[in-house]
Specification:
The structure is a single chain. 50% of the residues lie in helices and 20% in strands. Helix 6 crosses helix 9 (189-198) and helix 8 (178-184) packs across helix 9 (189-198). The chain has a domain at 2-131: Jelly Rolls, CATH 2.60.120.10. The radius of gyration is 18 Å and the shape is elongated. The chain has 9 helices and 8 strands. It is α+β, with helices and mostly antiparallel strands. The strands form 2 sheets. Strands 1-8-3-6 form a 4-stranded antiparallel beta sheet. A 4-stranded antiparallel beta sheet has the order 2-7-4-5, with helices on both faces.
Length: 200
């Protein structure tokens, strides 16, 4: 049953998200399905922890928001690093392309279905189907743009950070706790609630 569900979801959502170049290539489609895994995740399930390239995966959430965070061992706090929308490829470019160590935790914020493929299996597909390269480059460029905008946001006053977080991430705000929201504004929960009260 699950294999039929995996096949149907990959054909309906993952293949179109890769662009139109490979959707008619039956060999590619079958290899992607065979190399992928499906998970029924529960709310706040940790999908990935910091670690080596060998354990890294590309994730694709069908129906739930996902976020990543970094745990600072010096200040003993979690710092939000990225928010991913539904049906978006989730990957850490430096680990996939340079085999660097991953530093972030990946957590799903709602119960939902997630499809993933290990980095090593994706690279094997990249060797065989060079058309995939453009999609990976696009994801990497979007990641760089996101982190650049995030750095700009973190340099703003706290109230402006909270305002921008709410303006740009409505689905995230609706599906996450205020503790998680505070992490992505780089504030303590008390500091976040204090700034939030100024916006009302």
């Amino acid at each position: 049953m699950q294999s039929h569900q995996k096949r149907a979801l990959i054909i309906k959502y993952v293949i179109p998200a890769l662009g139109n170049v490979l959707h008619t290539n039956e060999g590619f489609v079958e290899q992607l399905i065979a190399s992928s895994y499906l998970v029924h995740a529960v709310k706040y399930q940790q999908l990935e922890m910091p670690g080596y390239f060998e354990d890294g995966c590309v994730w694709f959430s069908i129906d739930a928001i996902v976020h990543s965070y970094y745990y600072c061992p010096y200040k003993l706090v979690k710092k939000g690093t990225r928010i991913w929308s539904k049906r978006e490829f989730i990957l850490f470019s430096s680990c996939l392309l340079k085999r660097e160590q991953r530093t972030d935790y990946l957590e799903i914020l709602e119960a939902g279905i997630v499809i993933y493929i290990k980095y090593a299996q994706l690279l094997a597909l990249l060797d065989q189907y060079t058309e995939l390269e453009n999609q990976i480059k696009l994801v990497s460029v979007n990641n760089e743009r996101y982190y650049h905008n995030r750095n700009l946001m973190m340099n703003k006053p706290p109230v402006e950070r909270v305002k921008q977080l709410h303006t740009e991430n409505k689905l995230f705000i609706n599906s996450s706790s205020q503790v998680v929201q505070a992490m992505h504004a780089n504030l303590s929960l008390r500091g976040y609630l204090n700034q939030l009260s100024k916006l009302k």
